[in-house]
Structures are given as C-alpha cells and as structure tokens.
Amino acid sequence: MGTKGEGNRQRIIEAADRLFYQRGYNQTSFQDISDATGIPRGNFYYYFKTKDEILDAVVQARSAHFVDMLKQHEAATADPRERLLKLADMLDVNQDMVVDAGCPLGSLSSELAKEGTALQHKSRQVFDVVRQWAAAQFAALGRSDADELAMELLARIQGVTVIACAFKDAAFLQRSLKQIKAWLVEVSGG
C-alpha cells in the first residue's frame, strides 16, 4: 500500500476509533466514518471489507497506544508501585474525556460483550494487555495474588469511569483516584 493508501487507512482507523468511543460501535456506520474522513464510502472496501475489520484495526491501535503508555511508565521508574500509581493517574490525565464519554476500553467492551463471543474477545484484548502488565507489577512487589490485584485495580478504575461519566462528576473522579492510589500504596506494602 502506498503512502496515500496508508494515510487513508490510518484516517479511517482514527475516525472509527473516535466515533466508536463517542457513539458506540453499533451506532457508527460506514457512512459516519466516511463523513468524518471525507473518504468515499465505496473506497473503504479497498482497506476494510467489513466493519469488524475496522474494529480489529481500532483495537490494535488502542492496544499499541496502551503498550506505549505502559512502556513509558516502565521507562520513567523502576519502582513497580510508582508504575501502578502512574497507571491510575490516567484517570486524572484523561479526566475531561472520561467525564464526557467514559473509558474508551470499558465502553467498547461493555457494548460488544452483548454481541457474542468473537466481538467480546476482540474488545477485551486491550484489557488483557493492561491486566497482564499490572499483574507483573504486583508480582514484582512480591504479591502472590498479583492477578487478583490486577483485576481489582481494573475494576476500581472502570467503576470510577462509569460513575464519573454517568453523573458528569469530575470531583467524584478526583476523590476516587485518591482512594485508588491509597489502596495501591496499602496493597504494595507501603
């Protein structure tokens, strides 16, 4: 695929990612993505045969974004507790987005979980990356229950995003972030 082709493909992925987050996967059509990109709908089939193929590309892009973010946390500090605290801080960094539309991972996963096993599995891939990374940090802290703690951390973060979005409440998000961070310090032996 040439430079222009790759550029168009990337524009489709970015527009779909944004629209899936703002509207939901099921509420986003090829036409919506076409309107957002200015690329004629008929040209999409050169890049993606189905909407599920676009979803795959969006999930891969989100996964790559999270892998990059987690690598940045690792580069910033060797301390697993500090890395976990940095992960929790994404609530603060993305506060406006979370209060407005929730978590891009959680909202997509919740929506697609109702669709069946294949789509739900796709949407869970990014959660799997974050879960494994968090479990590795807890394990590095000597916790034998590292996977359970990773799941608990994901549950706390997702719970906060759902409620903060439902009530459009940034103050709740900030209070909850403090509680999550205090819990992380407690379970990491601090």
3D architecture notes:
By secondary structure, this protein is mostly helical. The mean pLDDT is 92. The chain has 2 domains: 49 residues, Orthogonal Bundle (Arc Repressor Mutant, subunit A), CATH 1.10.10.60; 137 residues, Tetracycline Repressor, domain 2 (Orthogonal Bundle). It is elongated, with a radius of gyration of 18 Å.
Give a quick rundown of the structure.
With 190 residues, this protein is an all-alpha fold.
- Mean pLDDT, rounded to whole units? 92
Radius of gyration: 18 Å
Just name the CATH architecture of the largest domain: Orthogonal Bundle
Largest sheet: none
Topology (elements, then pairings):
Blueprint: H1 3-23, H2 30-37, H3 44-47, H4 51-76, H5 80-88, H6 90-93, H7 95-101, H8 104-113, H9 117-140, H10 146-167, H11 170-187
Distinctive features:
single chain; 190 residues; mainly alpha; Arc Repressor Mutant, subunit A; Tetracycline Repressor, domain 2; 2 domains; 11 helices; 0% strand; elongated
